[in-house]
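Data card: per-record layout.
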Amino acid sequence: MEKFLGLLRIRVLKGVNLVVRDTRASDPYVVISAGDKKVKTKVVKNNINPEWNDELTLGVADLNHPILLTVYDKDSISRDDRMGDAEIDIKPYVEHLKMGVKGLDNDTTVCRLSPTRENCLAEVSCIIWKDGKLVQDMCLRLRNVERGEIHLQLEWITPAGSKGLHSA
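The structure for this 168-residue chain is written out next.
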């Protein structure tokens, strides 16, 4: 049986300059998966700069297993078209969670992560102390496509009665 570490709340905020997969626009939605678990946003009709503002929750059992984000164009007649993908690297965020940071001033930046060839970051990503918890803001550059970015925010949720990440 897989060991359950906790829940990752992923706020999928918006897409920027996504590719056109239909005649003039696309009907994008995002699927986020970790292992055999998948969650998805609502479809935003006819928009290459969609605002989802969807809150998705994904169970995390293995920190070494990549979290994959894939954008699709919803089609009613044929199979949905891929509009790019990105990998969400939660390891730096989790390392800062394990440090047990507490009691900082609101909006204090704990860490800044720069885009590299090894990650999908489109710009500097900040891990921030906000409202009594650590969150990470990310702007991911989509791969396997001409262009597009997805803006999201990560927040760890430790279920009641769980030791969470400190036992990981």
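Known properties of this structure: The longest strand covers residues 6-16. The chain has one domain: 6-158.

See the next section for split statistics.
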